[in-house]
UniProtKB/TrEMBL annotation:
Organism whose genome encodes this protein: Nonomuraea longicatena
InterPro entries assigned: Plipid/glycerol_acylTrfase
Signal peptide: none
Record protein name field: Lysophospholipid acyltransferase family protein
GO molecular function terms attached to this record: acyltransferase activity
One Pfam family hit: Acyltransferase
CDD domains linked: LPLAT_AGPAT-like
PANTHER family: 1-ACYL-SN-GLYCEROL-3-PHOSPHATE ACYLTRANSFERASE, POSSIBLE ACYLTRANSFERASE
SMART domains with a match to the protein in the record: PlsC (SM00563)
Length: 236
């Protein structure tokens, strides 16, 4: 079994010293089913996206459960002084959105999976625009990577980050202290796509299965019923 991929001791220590205390300060924790995360080997972790603060909070959860998240991040971050060096040091993979360069990002992610990394995707590509904050229709990158690599896909749902920093706001709401809930689902069953060419229809179907798994976990966390049809910002 592959050894989990981690950054250098310097970058890991720096991130942990900053992120863990900040995470504990921001929210109370309700963490569920961390034992479902494979402790080693290449794995694709997919999650819903609610707030600009949830990458920090989800990453803390993953780290405490034995996995370093290799995040696909906007390429613009890599061009910011110091921040660019930091995200590289933390093993993030740059993504040029709306470009053929996005294929290179998936190739880089496939290489990391082969090395035993836990690659962390937000399949929606951005924070949800659903009025009730349910997951939207996903983009096909995670499905393509899963079908081409054979790596397991683990759905992770979370709730509460939007109460700390709602999408579009710059000032966090620190008091009263909010609760961040996160739950890990069982691997998404993509066996029905084995041997099929990853053309557009197949990728859309597999993506829908992935988003349904995330949504089911979120419904359990929220104690509510998700809409039958996910919100599509493109209006398709």
């Amino acid at each position: 079994m592959s050894r989990p991929v981690r950054p250098s001791r310097f970058w890991e220590t720096l991130a942990v010293v900053i992120v863990k205390p900040l995470s504990w300060l921001l929210v109370k924790k309700d963490w569920r089913h961390g034992e479902r995360l494979p402790r080693a080997g290449g794995v694709i972790i997919v999650a819903n996206h609610l707030s600009w603060v949830d990458p920090l909070l989800v990453s803390h959860f993953l780290y405490n459960n034995g996995r370093w998240p290799v995040i696909l991040a906007k390429a613009g971050l890599f061009r910011v002084p110091f921040l660019g060096a930091a995200v590289r040091g933390l093993l993030a993979i740059p993504v040029e959105r709306g470009s053929d360069e996005a294929i290179r990002s998936l190739k880089a992610a496939e290489g990391r999976l082969a090395d035993g990394a836990a690659v962390f995707f937000y399949p929606e590509g951005t924070c949800t625009r659903d009025p009730a904050l349910w997951p939207m229709v996903g983009k096909t990158g995670a499905a393509r990577l899963a079908l081409e690599s054979g790596a397991p896909v683990i759905p992770v749902a979370h709730w509460g980050a939007q109460d700390v920093l709602p999408y579009g706001e710059k000032k966090p709401r620190l008091f009263p202290r909010k609760t961040f809930r996160v739950s890990v689902g069982r691997p998404v069953d993509l066996s029905g796509y084995a041997g099929r060419s990853p053309h557009a229809d197949v990728l859309r179907e597999a993506t829908a299965d992935i988003m349904a798994a995330i949504t089911a976990q979120l419904a359990e966390l929220r104690g509510g019923k998700a809409p039958e049809t996910p919100y599509d910002p493109a209006g398709r």
